[in-house]
Amino acid sequence: MWGKLISGRWSLPLAVLVGMLLVAPGMNLGLFGDDYLHWAILTGRVHNPQVGSFFGLFNFADGVPAHVQSLKDSGQLVWWASDLIKINFWRPLSELSQWLDYALWPQQFWLMHLHNVLLYGLMIWLVGVFYRQLDRDRTHTGLATWLFAGNMLHAFAVAWLACRNQMLSGVFLGLTMLAYHGWRQHGGAGKLALTLLVFVLGLFSAEASVQIFGYILAYSLFIEHDRPLVRRALAVLPFVLVVLAWKYTHGKLGYGSYASPGYVDPSSNLQGFLTSVTLRMPALMIAQWFGVSSVMYEQLTPAVKAAYSGAGAAALLGLAWLLARLGAFQSALVRFYVGGAVLSLAPACAGYPFDRLTVNSDIGVSGALAIVLVSVWDRRQALSGGVLGAAKWVVLLLGAVHLVLFPLGKVAQSAMLKPLMAPGDHLMPLAMPEPPAGSSQRYLLVNSPVAEGVYYAPLIRTQHGLNNPEAMYALGPNSRASTLSRVDDRTLEMSVDGGWRSTISRDLQLQPFKVGDSARMGDITVTVTAVSDDHAPTRVQFALPVSADDARWVYFVWRGLGVDTVRPPAVGQSIEIPAFDLQAAVVDWMKKH
Question: Is 65 exposed, middle or buried (0-12, 13-18, 19+ CB in 10 A)?
């Protein structure tokens, strides 16, 4: 029965169906994060025009100091963000796809999620067909397709509406590789033109589509290893030129990233990108192969990150050695799949580690693991004792993880996404009360659970039918213990354990703080008075335009499941604000709801 399920005529459509069903519970997620910005733009509440973009759905900050300052003045950007912060992505086809949703069913978010699920099903189908084009062994190709369809790392990528670009990228990756393989096997200028066309469409869907080049390069190195080097180089050259032309245009139009520790563009920070690849790739590959999520990686201290990445690299090299002892790399297909997986994952390291970034790279992982699993299972009696016996059990354990735990984890993740994500909205933007009608109140968020999330807070409140104050300003970073002191009538001083650090808006390696640095948010001036050894602010002063006791200022402090208003201390006095345990608050919120 299992053989027919894996290699029978219905194997591919069943894998597609099961892959979609495993993520179907995530269709109740609703809006999350970037989705609120997209909702506001596509329903006409916000206008964000950008050159080369239909709506500006993926344009968060353009690196122009005056524009960045306006975002700080409005409270969207935290005061410690870089004045040169650029997070601009060029994804016009993805914009059109999401515009179509709002044109057809603007209030039916589940249909937008279904759109994602259907695109994911199409990707699984194309990947399965690609496996079949490369390998005549239906056991290999069927198992590879089932492994890919059951991969739990894909759950959030499918469920999050803002990841539509990733679904489109995956579809165009599948189309590109099928077209490329057809061209390399049969030739013809028409087939080359078709391949280049779908490649370009992928690049217009998401920057992640540059990952396709990793598979093209691996194809040249391993599938066509017996062809003359010049012919292989000439085959790759058109795609190199397309990537260079795309990247040049991408930069000229103002797209890319800069001064963000989360998004490291190799064209503006090559050293930072190489460091990111060195540190982030092991974290992502550990998630791919062993199922240890990379989600919390970015929250680790630099020293722990380095240790984790080093241990991960050692584990991966150990796995590669065991696979080599099993003879896995004698197969050109295994070399192609592994090479394509690694090469295609490198561009994903430009973004901070998140399991969803592995979707395109997982094509190679699933293909390689399927071939190795079948080979080891067929030789299981002969592989006993010593290194080969240990290698056999490692591979079989990996097979159990990917064939059993991954699908179970995928459906569980999909079902738990809404309960896990909803508290974020309710514990921060929705927890704050509405301002009195006609007031000029400004909310000062002392220890916001997600300080950089203030970018979305007004939009989330608007989407839920709540009014907003004149502005919301994050004073402190995420949830940290702090001391708030009163220097004089108009000046507050704040000290924070561990300092102000950012996952998104300021790269301290590129732009370290020093004592005396100042920033402005509206009519509040912020001055850094102490920094850590690695140049993060640890103490700052806030100079207000009027008394800190003025009714326009409303101070919020998060405790337990709620948010409290506090009054600033008297001149010369201080108040201690304990760290806010966001994880415990989320658990408590879920219990009550």
Answer: exposed
Give first-to-last CA distance, the chain, whole Å: 43
CA dist list (Å): 555 to 276, 468, 486, 563: 37, 15, 14, 10
Write out pLDDT tens, residues 65-122.
999 999 999 999 999 999 999 999 999 999 999 999 999 999 999 999 999 999 999 9
Contact (Cβ atoms closer than 8 angstroms) between residue 287 and residue 293: yes
Can you tell me the distance from the alpha carbon of 143 to that of 563, in angstroms, rounded to the nearest whole number? 51
Measured CA to CA, the distance from residue 6 to residue 139 in angstroms comes to 6
Q: Are strands 482-488 and 491-496 parallel, antiparallel or unpaired?
A: antiparallel
Q: Is 297 helix (H, G, I), strand (E, B) or coil?
A: helix
Q: Residue 293 and residue 300: Cα distance in Å, rounded?
A: 13
Segment 156-189, tens digit of pLDDT: 999 999 999 999 999 999 999 999 999 999 989 9
Rounded-to-integer distance, Cα 24 and Cα 361, Å: 22
The C-alpha atoms of residue 97 and residue 34 are separated, in whole angstroms, by 15
Q: Are 473 and 79 in contact (CB under 8 A)?
A: yes
Q: Which of 198, 281, 184, 286 is nearest to 242 (CA)?
A: 198
The DSSP line for 150-209 is T-GGGHHHHH-GGGHHHHHHHHHHHHHHHHHHHHHHH--HHHHHHHHHHHHHHHTT-GGG
- The full DSSP string for 37-95 is HHHHHHTTS----BTTBSS-TTEEEES-HHHHHHHHHHTSS-TTS-TT-EEE---HHHH
SS3 of 525-544: the string is EEEEEEECCCCCEEEEEEEC
CA distance 30 to 28: 6
Short-list 374, 368, 305, 310, CA closest to 342:
368
